[in-house]
Every structure is written in C-alpha cells, then in structure tokens.
Amino acid sequence: MIEKIHHLMQEIANLEAKSAQEAEILRIKYLSKKGEISQLMNDFRSVPAELKKEVGMKINELKTLAHEKINALKENADTASSTDEASLDLTRTPYPTPLGSRHPLTIVKNEIVDIFSRLGFTLAEGPEVEDDWHVYSSLNFADDHPARDMQDTFFVETHPDIILRSHTSSVQSRVMETTQPPIRILCPGRVYRNEAVSARAHCFFHQVEGLYIDKNVSFTDLKQVLLLFAQELFGPDTKIRLRPSYFPFTEPSAEMDVSCTICGGKGCSMCKGSGWLEILGCGMVDPAVLEANGIDSNVYTGYAFGMGIERITNLKYQVKDLRMFSENDVRFLDEFVSAR
Ligand code: DAH
C-alpha cells in the first residue's frame, strides 16, 4: 500500500495540463469520489491496525499534494490563456499610461521665470550651501543683525562660516563679483531657515530673486516692472501698492502688495478685510552693496526684488498647509495635472 501511495505521489508531482479543462480532468481522475485517492481510502480499511497510523498520514500527505498540484495547474492555465488572448487581440485599445503632473511650485516658478524672461531677465543660480560673506556680509548685514542668529540660519557645526542660504539674495552677490553691469538676472532656488515645521512655516522653501543693474536705473523702472509682473501673474485688473520697508541691502526699500486675488480689493477673509496681499520685498540696491561686490556706485544704480514661491502658489491655488508641498501625496499632486 505504501508503495502504491509513493507511486501516486510521483505521478501527481509530474502532472502537466495545457488548459483549465485538462486540469479539471486530472482533478476528477485523482480527487473525485470515484478517483484514485478515494479508492485508496477504501483499501485503507483492510490495513492492519498497527500500520494504520503510518498509512493514514501518507494518504493525507498525498491528498494535500494532489490538491496543491491540481490547483496550481488550473491557475497557471488560467493566466496563460488570458495573456494569450490579450496578446492575440492586436486591435485592443492600449491601457492608458497614467501621466504625472508638474509640482505646483514648479508650475508657478516657471510662470514667474516666463514673465521676467520676456522683460530681458536671464537665469542665474548659486549654491544652497553658502558662506557668510555671500548670504550676509556682502549684502550689508551688520555683524549683529538678527537674521544671522541661530534661530534663523542653519550653520555647519564644524565650520560656522558655512551655512545653508536663508535667502536667494546671495546669488546677487555671486553674480556681481564676477560680472560688470549691465546685469539683469532672475534667481529661483531653495532656501533654508531654522523654523519649526507647521502649516504656516517650513525649514525650507523657495524664492525668486531679481536684480537689475545698469546706468540710470531708477525706482520708476522698478515700479513699472513690478506692475507688469503682477498683472501678468494675477490678471490685467491687478493693482499694486508699495509700502516703505527696510532691508539691509536696499535703500530705499519697500514691500509690495497686490489687490486681493479673491475679492479684487473689496475685502474678504483671504486679505483679512484689507483688500491687499503682500507678495514681495524690493528696493534700490544700496550703494554699499555695489561697492562691496566690485561695482562702481558712482556709475551704476540698480534695483532688486525677492519673493517666496510658496506664498504666490498659495495665493493662486489656495493651498492651506505648507507641508503639502513637500509630502509628495499623489492626491494633492494630481490636482495639478491640468495646470500648465
Ligand atoms: N531676501 C529677502 C527675504 O528673504 C527678500 C528680498 C527683499 C529680496 C528685498 C530683495 C529685496 O532682493 O530687494 O526676505
């Protein structure tokens, strides 16, 4: 009897089936009520009592093997036949390939770059790991200026002069030290600040910096370029207003507001009733900055501006939580598939 069981085991292990039907025929042959294994069960009755345990275990082993083998044959036959059919139907419409989307910050950055390149600005880049000179000293920050504070700047532990840039204004100085005017550049890039991550603040974000230096550049030029920019970005009815402000690297300095992109200036919850939204800082490049970077301030003047890309993206798309920009949740990113 044991020999017969072993023989069947061998036989079943070597079974093959080309189709699900063939596998079903094998199931009937071995596993149905009148199949070979049921037959063995009948014979089991006449096995002497002292061998029953051993033979019983063998029969169970055989049964499990037969079930597993025949199920596997069926499954293989199923998938084989379905792929066969698919590859044969050459007229079948192909499955659509899911397309990715541009990141919202990239969409808005491209839009900003586009507008300023039409005004003659070219792109410039600088390193994210910078030195104190390019981020602060060359831009007229006093040694004890609060922006240098540990609260704000990420320092490299072993080398306090090396920092992560906290604004893209550092690229201004990188370009000025190697180029004589006319200079007309736009510098998009990532910046870092030592802030606790929340819906309203992040330890890294993105800015675009602009710089124009030439003979006879005036505040009027700055105002006109910024008005044009705002109307291209937010629509032709957009108004701007400049409020006096302070930055170490510009004199005079201003902050620019645009008329609220939601209510158009009437006052709503977005603009907290004021009708205005702040979008950038700007001003005339301080002569001390020109001199520190090797440009003759008696011959040249210039203007500069800087804005946060997240801020502008929030205004355009009402993203409520800054963290969404860096979490890479496809449900968020998919919302921008149709944006340009
Ligand atoms: N660097 C400033 C910041 O990070 C932004 C800025 C303000 C840039 C005025 C400028 C400017 O070029 O003129 O807050």
Q: Give the amount of beta strand, in percent.
A: 15-25%
Q: Which distinct ligands sit in these coordinates?
A: 3,4-dihydroxyphenylalanine
Taking strands numbered 1, 2, ... along the chain, how are they ordered across the largest sheet?
Answer: 1-5-6-10-9-8-7
Shape designation = elongated
Straight-line N-to-C gap: 76 Å
Question: How many DSSP H or I helices?
Answer: 12
**Could you describe the largest sheet, including whether it forms a barrel?**
7 strands, mixed
Calculate Rg over CA atoms. 37 Å
Poorly predicted regions:
none
Question: Can you offer a commentary on this structure?
Answer:
The chain is of the alpha+beta class. It is 41% helix and 21% strand. The chain is built from twelve helices and ten strands. The chain has helices spanning 2-13, 20-31, 36-44, 49-88, 104-118, 132-135, 169-176, 219-234, 287-292, 309-317, 324-327, 330-333; strands spanning 122-123, 129-131, 155-156, 159-164, 183-192, 204-214, 240-247, 250-259, 276-285, 301-308. A seven-stranded mixed β-sheet has the order 1-5-6-10-9-8-7, sandwiched between helices. It has a three-stranded antiparallel β-sheet with strand order 2-4-3. Helix 1 (2-13) runs parallel beside helix 4, helix 2 (20-31) packs antiparallel against helix 4 (49-88) and helix 5 (104-118) crosses helix 10 (309-317). The radius of gyration is 37 Å and the shape is elongated. The protein binds 3,4-dihydroxyphenylalanine. 3,4-dihydroxyphenylalanine binds at residues 167, 169, 209, 247, 250, 281-283, 304-306.
